[in-house]
Amino acid sequence: MIPEPALSGQGFFMNIDYGSQCGAKTCGGEDWISLFDGKTLNGWKPSENVKSWSVKDGMLTADGGRSHLFYAGSVNNADFANFAFKADVMTMPGANSGLYFHTKYQESNWPGQGFEAQINNTYKSDPRKTASLYSIQDVHVAPVEDNKWFTEHIIVNGKRVIIKVNGVTLVDYTEPADARRKLSHGTFALQCHDPKSKVYFKNIMVKPLP
User: Fold this and answer.
1) Cβ neighbours of 82 (radius 10 Å)
2) What is the CATH superfamily name and number for domain 33-208?
3) Are 95 and 121 spatial neighbours (Cβ–Cβ below 8 Å)?
């Protein structure tokens, strides 16, 4: 387990690895909280094209027209500022998707609030690949392959965002004072990008941080 690189002024967060080697339920003696029961969409609210989302065999599937699935359950009143979040993801060839945080529900279009951790291994129309903090700190080489499960892990604490894939840190961003988009708080959302972007999710979990 390799500690995260130290950043001045970040306090205790500097040297803690929040779960790169953790099991599905516990991390450092503390419980992760599941946001998806593996059977239903309870606690989640889809936007346009509701039928783009389905649940089968413990997996949540995004398959259809553009839609975003927002967490609207009871954990932390669906409002997170500092947190560790992770999900197991599998993309089909040519798929595009994303994990949004600090966002809020909207009925249609792309989410106008918050940030996106990109999911894209072979979608050709967008050079931003899996683990990109979209349009802020981008990854240009896909770290994983289609048709294989991987874990995408987002950690937000104060002004710092870390995004990992399979335990490897690919983005480590500290918000500058002049950032046009500010880290704040909000809920999570999963993206169904388009009818040709089929993506599976499971083991969707969060750990609120102080």
Assistant:
1) 16
2) Exo-inulinase; domain 1 (2.60.120.560)
3) yes
Residues 91-108: tens digit of each pLDDT: 999 999 999 999 999 999
Give the pLDDT band (50/70/90) at residue 17: very low
Dist. CA 189–CA 80, nearest whole Å? 12
Q: What angle do CA 16, 17, 18 make, to 5 degrees?
A: 105
Q: How does pLDDT run across 42-89, given as a tens digit for each residue? A: 999 999 999 999 999 999 999 999 999 999 999 999 999 999 999 999
Which regions of 23-92 does DSSP assign to beta strands (E)? 26-27, 30-31, 33-34, 44-46, 53-56, 59-62, 67-71, 83-91
How far is residue 152 CA from its own chain's centroid? Answer: 6
Residues 179-183: contacts with CB within 8 Å, 24+ apart? 181/115, 181/136, 183/102, 183/115, 183/156, 183/158, 183/159
8 Å CB contact between 164 and 20: yes
Take residue 187 and report the two structure tokens written for it. Answer: 């809920």
Residue 141, pLDDT score: 98
CB 166 within 8 A of CB 20: no
Whole-model pTM: value is: 0.86
